[in-house]
Design a protein that fits this description.
This protein is mostly helical. 52% of the residues lie in helices and 7% in strands.
Length: 90
């Protein structure tokens, strides 16, 4: 997934518990857990605002963009030439 949620990192840095954050934001601990794991399709700006308010941080401290790796990127990182042709010797 190209968007990485760094909520656990911020909670750890602030020495705070998820339960405290969930109570402040007004969401369930289960929904906060889904958000922390990145298993949500979106987050309301109001929710993001309350999280940032509680953690005293910026949205960029919580979210990170990492471009998805293409197959050719993975092949080159493993030392394979993506343009190389394979031949059967049988």
């Amino acid at each position: 997934m190209p968007i990485i949620v760094r909520l656990d990192v911020m909670l750890a840095l602030r020495k705070l518990k998820s339960k405290e954050l969930a109570a402040h934001v007004g969401i369930t601990e289960a929904n906060l857990s889904l958000l922390k794991s990145g298993k949500v399709k979106g987050v309301r700006f109001e929710t993001l605002e309350r999280i940032c308010e509680f953690l005293q941080c910026q949205p960029g401290d919580l979210l990170e963009y990492q471009p998805a790796r293409s197959e050719s990127d993975e092949d080159s990182s493993r030392g394979k030439d993506p343009d190389a042709q394979t031949h059967d010797m049988a």
